[in-house]
## 1
Amino acid sequence: MELKLNVREILKKYNLIIMLVIFIIISAALSPNFLTFNNFFNLLQQASIPGIVAIGMTLVIILGGIDLSVGSVLAFSGMITSMVVYRFTGNMLGLIAGCLLGIVVSALMGMFTGVLISRFRLPDFIASLAMMEIARGAALLTTSGNPIFGLDETFHIPGGGFIFDKVAISGVIWIILTAIAALLLKFTVFGRSLFAIGGNSEAAMLSGIKTKRNYAITYVACAILAGLAGILTASWMSTGQPTAGTGYELDAIAASVIGGASLSGGAGSVVGTFGGVFLLQIITNIFNLVGLPSYYQRIAKGLIIIFALLLNKYVSKERK
Amino acid sequence: MNENILEMRNISKVFPGVKALDNVDFTVKKGEVHCLIGANGAGKSTLMKILSGAYTEDSGEIFFNEKVLKPHGTQERKNVGISIIYQELSLFNELTVAENVYINNYPKTAAAAVDWKRMYENTQKLADSLNIKINARAKISSLNIGQRQLTEIMKALACEAKLIVMDEPSSTLSQSEFEILVKVIKDLKEKGITIIYISHHLEELFIVGDRITILKDGKFVVCKGTKELDENSLVENMTGIKISQIETEEKEIHKVSDEVVLELKDMSNYKVSNINLALHKGEVIGLYGLVGAGRTEILQSIFGLAAITSGEMQIKGKKVRIKNTQEAIQHGIGLAPENRKTQGLVLMLPVWENMSMVAISKFKERGGIKYKSINKECQKYKEKLDVKTPSIQTVTRNLSGGNQQKVILAKWLMKDCDILLLDEPTQGIDVIAKEEIYKLVREMTTMGKSVIVVSSELQELLRICDNIHVIYDGKQIMCSNKAYFNSDQILHASVVGRIG
């Protein structure tokens, strides 16, 4: 009895880590190339951009919402930045201005979605679905659907550069942002309020928490992170691609949920999401290494999500 | 042949800490309109929930049409012909009248598809037979409350109900809607259908009822024909004399300071009108009245949840306009809302997080929130209020009702607010925890805090309040000081809406 309880406790606390370890062992057995430093840094680079998107998604999910527009916001921000960077090739100031503009535009889009939900009480699913369409359309409109090739070489550094020729800068940004978000959630009044609002927004309102304002702020934060991911995507590919980020919203939701977030709100962790993104990336990675077609990947991904959720449900069975 | 359609014999039901029903007998004759009355908490709802099968009796027997009803689910009771129309109606707003009426047994065509034509025709026939003017094809959302009530009645008839229980059918009806209801009830009687009618409005009972059964504190008091009773004897039976005996035991007058911390002057909002109230430092004011009289709504305006439409509110002598909960909290007001679970707490979060939810800024230092100080403070309040929880890390959902309420009180004490609004603070809490909460309220007043308590339990208010205001139908009809508390008078006022 005692032992059984302990197993459940351990599973509950570390179930994501245990799953990661299992998958790493399986992957290592399947391919000798998996457990190498090079491959690990590869993983970090590949996971960084979806990872940054997933941080924002986790914040929104903790709040009890959902944001389907992140993939499109990513694309639009990338296009805006690329246009400015292309126009001012070789000009450092132009480069910075381009990035800032991308961020600002993303923030405005997030604000719009957030206000629609908090002030005008549109369902979060629908409001963000609408923004998903608007932002994608806007991204395509910038260049009539054409990519912008040949961006400035300096611009390639944040998304495609490496420290010591190994560690992707974007990966470092991802880790830093995860740490910042984790600290924000744990040590700020705003961060705690997200859990309260997501857990019971009426009780939060009656406790004097500014639920509407915090709702809007969180959607802005989520959009800014998506916008940043868009800039990094353009930087990494040296290309402004209006179709970038398609389907990222679903990956981000999946990663958050695998990482312990509850879609009904009030629970979640950005560190867990970090692990969730990594897990999903490992699956893609091992399928590539083994050389199986990507169709299998998607089936496997779906199964992993189900498995992770069932495990979460099993270990969190507290009710008598 | 037995003329009784329903006999409930020696029904008892115990909830943790309360004996909700104590050997209650309830007998209804075939074809009559039988009224069931009693003050809040007398056991009417529990008795009806046992009849409907929603609750199972602990002991006792139920005979319906001379057959014993075994404890089972609500669907079986419906099948034998018992239908209950609850106060909050259970209709589907986006469906038509006919669909709602036949929601449990859609008429089918030979091909097993829904027979819409027959459904509309049958509904219209049913409506005509009761002289109800209603369009079977209308959506529920387009109907007024009275028509919705009638739809519920038709729904009961479509299930071939022989006994219909109407729980407070008139509480939301206008006078003309009520008259239609009276007519429909008469028609139902002619069809041989028996009705149990529950209402707080005593004068109605004499219009619709044949006999009246009175419950008090979970016990059967009397069952008599309407003609043998009048309003005064009803109130007497509903209130009894027991309450007045208790109150004399603790009639010491508590010294209240002259300092007024909160004052309402002719305050009106969407529900109540011209409320006058002065809350002194260290005072406990009780708001008594029937459920739905407007007590909670007064608290809503004080806490910035409902706009004040006329009159004004003053805090410490200064006129204030409170627009939201943040402003109310800044003015030192705290609210323990009526529903602990859905409004008072975030159940999935741990005890400490709920306790510190309002005061959290207090623990903010340069490096962010200081968990050490939160821990210390929560531990302090856990001991001070004797919150029974394994640890402050425990998820609040796992605490008992009384301890959850203490967590809510701790939340406001931690914020150090001066004015506490408690809405039904002891609802569903066992006797021991109730005593603890009364003690806490008294302690708070000695700390110089002022309290407004809304409660449906008069005994509770008589014990802890310095002044009791009686609210009836949105109006303040009586104010009584502790020195002159008279439970009969207060109950009478709350039930009939006037003094004496």
Note: The first strand of chain A starts at residue 162 and ends at 163.
## 2
Amino acid sequence: MVSIEIDGKKIEAEQGAMIIEVADANGITIPRFCYHKKLSIAANCRMCLVEVDGVKKPLPACATPISDGMVVKTQSDFAQESQKSVMEFLLINHPLDCPICDQGGECELQDVALEYGNDVSRFSEKKRAVVDEDLGPLIETEMTRCIHCTRCVRFGREVAGIRELGAVGRGEHMEISTFIEQSVDSEVSGNIIDLCPVGALTDKPSRYQARSWEMTQRDSVSPHDCIGANLHVHTLRNRVIRVVPKDNEAVNEVWLADRDRYSHQALDKSERLLKPMMRQNGADWKEVDWETALERTASKLNMISQTDGADQVAAIAHPSSTTEEMYLLQKVMRGLGSNNIDHRLRVTDFAWQKFEPLHPELGVELSDLENLDACLLIGANLRKEQPLASLRVRKATRYGDIASIGLYPVYHNFDVKHEIITDAETWLVQLAAIAKYLYENQAASDKEHWADAMDLEGLETLIAPINVQEEHREVAGMLLQADKASIILGASALEFSYAGHIRLLAKAIANLSGSSYGFFPHGGNSVGAYLAGAIPHRGPAGADVEQNGQHIKDLFEQNKKSYVLLKTEPGKESVIAEEARRSLAQADFVVALTCHADDEAFEYADIVLPVASFLETSGSYVNVNGLWQDFAAVVSAPGEAKPAWKVLRVLGNLLNLKNFDYVSAEDVRKEVKGRLSAVGDRIKPKWQCPETLPRDGFAPRPVNMYQIDGWLRRAPSLQQTALAQGREILKRPRLSPFHNIVGGV
Amino acid sequence: MTETAPKTLEKLLSSKGLEQAAVWVKKYPEERKRAAIIPIMTIVQEELGYLTQESMDAVADYLSCPKIAAYEVASFYSMFRLKEAGKYVISLCTNVSCMLAGSGDIKQWFQDELGIAPGETTSDGKFTLKEVECMAACGGAPMLEVDKQYHENLTVDKVAHLIHELK
């Protein structure tokens, strides 16, 4: 620690910190454009010049480390004159189009110019104009406004790991550009809009729709992945205009994935269902009032469960439904006497479900991903499955190593040290080989230590015939050497037809190497689904059920008489889409609680009930670290659409089920949480040794990252991106994290 | 964009050029090998006349750096040509010393006799004129450079003679 003085204020700070960091931490404002706390230091805008006693020249606060006894003045005449001069230079070429600029009102240049700019420009020559870039459907450009802070360039190089933008040309001719005609294809590209301090990069879908000061800012949580990114939603006259990130270091830092940012477009899409509709004698669809629709639903469900048995009623929820919705759905189902409820649309292997923990978990805090010394990714394409987690893992590659084992080559945005591409036949064997090397290279005392948690005899028999290859030794060695290691499973591991085996082997590897173990489940609220009991084999909070319901695969393969669908379109989402479509088509009665209804839905459903989307209802999501994040409605639902929890509550009442008198989503949440505290951590998964390593595994085709839920499928701008259409330039050079993170060229 | 097979540096350069490139790469640590980007692009330019997007991509792949990094370097340095140039590229200094010693007349001569202003190429594709900053030969001002050869203490007559010889 050293002590310095800024503007007469005595401050203790860490040696090596930059002046601007210390000033920011102590509430002293220094103007800046190129400096950003999450990016490397460029010191190219010179706006943060300050006076330091004993130094004759002004110094950039962002690139000047503090030293003991330093006296800094940010407001002295000398400092202010320097800052004003820089401002004058920056304004030379900046156009005066603030009245038509979307950044107007929230523009860093505008703010700083107000304070440091001159009233009159001394520059009478021609301003330069720059030809615009077309960066794709998400980012609007007006490159004449660019002040060359290079934040967007550094974001690509350092954070996203995919460098698409650069500073081309020099001096007055320098332009931020892709140089060749090319869109920016990164899955987190929208962040450069927030980073841009001026109006050069702005939100394309919301262009010219609102001025920043007219909009109201409300908070919400993203439903598209189990990170639970925090959102600031900007609305105008009950309409969502745009979404920007809300800072939360523990969750999304300051970033958003593009799908978190642009999925709101689906809210006012034409396929939006506005009124309850019912099929009349066969084929005709008719709009009805809520009462009719719900009474009909209740009587149909009642009738089928009484005449054909409660097990003929099945409910499928999308894992991006709120915890409250899923809790009420399972309560309705279990009230009818059926445990046939599931949300695991993309899981194929249910053999080991009774050994599962209380809920899916990552085993490591999201914010700790960046501190890992080693990480083994199994069947994970993090960039596309969990874009924000991928950014964290990328940070880990500064000092740590990543290994990846999966079925197909993945173009990660970080360096992978050991990559094993396997086929479905030998995937399990490869994992077992890593486990074998770990097992054989441990001291006997360690083995005793695991005997409680693991079935070592079984493991020994299982791995005995396996050949350990060099690549397995490398991966195992990497895990053994690391202080902090993590085994993380991704979507293709969970979708594999022997996913249970993979999970057990991965857990064995984790135990044997002292690593943490976990996985990223599908959808935004799979954790909430487990806690709420939207699974056939356990009730809310992991409670036992008298008799296991059927899992989703059986529900679709053994045609049921009736299906209740919550925010899901199984024909587009299920891993067994064909079976799903067929079973829905044959069912006597299908009721869909849905935001959108397309031809397919009208084909299979008998009643469609319009429900509120994630920005129109209150509720909560639980992220992969078990963090509950609740939110309120940001805008009201269009037409007669109602929050799904209200619909389910009324349905519960109509079915004469007990304890269905909730007044708010919070009541429901309290009930779920109450049940959780009652159960505690009763479920302690025991490790089971698989008896064999089957070779007939099957891996379903991975789903596009912009197809995973109904909102993404109906967000036009996202659907126009290269990523959605599978034409992004896949091949990236292998980038060394060394020169890509620590700045430099 | 679908993935077509782009030409690698190995396909673009002669074996001698490749040898030279390998020498440059060896001078830097493996993870910093992109530092060789300037000499290697110089080699490419010498062999192919100018830098195309294809050849810049090839250099970027060869050095495992993002393609945009190659574009940045190539567009930053005026010695790299991104457009086809004449057989002879004449770099005429018009900086202070040369200007005082009469480089303006020489520039005018090129305009009058060959019909090219700085940045232009003669219609027969022989000569390209480039206006450059000081080349550190003020003692012999005015000067120009062509084919890595300095020509100093120029007069209009001397330039006319030189061009005639090159023709």
Note: The interface with chain A takes residues 1-3, 31-32, 34, 53, 60-61, 64-69, 71-72, 75-76 of chain B (CB under 8 Å).
## 3
Amino acid sequence: MVLSRLNGLDDDELVDELNEIARKCRIEIVKMVYRAQAGHPGGSLSEIDLLTALYSTQLRIKPDEPKWHDRDRFILSKGHASPGMYAILAEMGFIQHSDLESYRVLGGICQGHVDMKFTPGVDFSAGSLGMGLSFGIGCALASRFDNSERECYVMLGDGEIQEGSVWEAMMAAKHHELGNLNVILDCNKIQNDDFVESQMRMFSIPDKWLSFGWNVKEIDGHNMKEIVEGLRWLKENNSGPSVLIANTIKGKGVSYMENNPKFHGAAPNEEQYAMAMKELGEKI
Amino acid sequence: MTELAASRDGYGNALISMSGDPKLVVLEADLGKSTKSCWFREQFPERTVSCGIGEQNMMLVAAGLASSGFKPFASTFAIFTERAFEQVRNGICRPNLPVHICGSHGGTHTGTDGSSAQSIEDLAIYRSLPNMVVMHPCDDVSTEILTKKLLEIKSPSYTRTARNKTPRIYDADDPRIQIGKGVKLRGGSDVAIIACGVMVSKSLEAAEILSESGIEATVVDMHTIKPLDEGLLHQLASECKSIVTVEDHSVIGGLGGAVAEYLSENIPTILRRVGVRDRFGESGQAEEMLELLKISTNDIINSVLEINEKV
């Protein structure tokens, strides 16, 4: 475990502790977007349980040595959901909590979309959807060429996979049988304009990945026990590329943001901010 | 007699000669037989990554490899690299990852495949990207030398090569061939002809014919479009009465555009740009295309004669 305080906990204690980390991250996500009066709270809140478990229990990383060559790679392809990533990077110690105040601020290290040139712990400059899986293939191939054990994790969104180049990458990952390539698909069912279903019907997402030859497992992306087990399955399943399809709720944890397309890319006003803090158990 | 060779062969030869570098990785998108990366693949299949017919994916796979310390060389037709322009922009140039892209079959000289295959804008679009080095060598020898020198730079690059054979200009290991440095191939103070790619040999041919009429031209192989050799350009503008740029590319944004930008801001000089005049090509033999698009040897001569009357 990267977080030493998690060592020795039993399963229930671990789940409780992870949920508490995620709650603190949710508070930071809403604060970042509120301060900037811009950004993407919905997808950050849907992904944060997954990121919390991934960073806290699974990634082989060194927060004090972010460029460690043999670290596992994590690529947030849905790079607009950067507040979620910054929150967990701060929790892990890659950046300071005070750095979160630089989100979307000129000269700050927390850019609007995650950027490897600005933020320690960010492995890919995202922001344009559909690019992370291909980049992840490059990282996974590099690991293979290096005879390294390092794994590559890529988080995609369910709206994002409408980009055609994602399907080029899905084919290529299977063609090269990249067992060290792991996708976490944050299926929050909402994209920029509206519900995914109304923008581009996806039919069965698991069947699509299965038909490309990937190993597929579906979980509840807010059930920490299922997440931890799902991530372990990803890591241990090296027979080819694997995808963990996480069914999530956009805006999870803030009642008026949940399942609300308005909060894909909008900041709360003062009243809404106070309500969010109350719901997340934070005093202001 | 002048030997003929295609610059794409220089790319293939360079990959083989760089194979001793264990970090070299070659990426293909089903056109390795055309770009000549197939020569590397035949000898080093374990370090060649097939991306199928998927250029967008290929560019970012290369970026991922570069981010982990590898030296990826990715090639396809010049025109198909453009399909992945945004991947190159956002995934390679923005994080400044040393991915080296080779676009073969560039320009109208590629011939009978027709306008869908004739990239006449690649140099312009890649020149517009921060961090990018842009080159268009004129023969197989300089392509091989310049490609090998890419291993020394820490930024991404785009190199255009040509499909068809043209006269070999350089001897092997010519020390004048450096990234970012134009090469003066011929001296003359009446006009400076600055060319790149397949148009370098045409410019030399034009200069010999002009010489018979008493007009002496300097001819420069400006193989690197970005960074532009501004020192040489300044010197040419000081020494020669006028400048003519020559390229198998649109006059908008390529070599002619780059030279015009520099001259107009720094040392205003009478300039003519020989290049494709804002139109597409069509099917035809290489030489027929140059005639059709008014970028043949005769067109270079006519531009020089026209400009010579004005100075």
Note: Residues 125 and 253 of chain B are 8 Å apart (CA to CA).
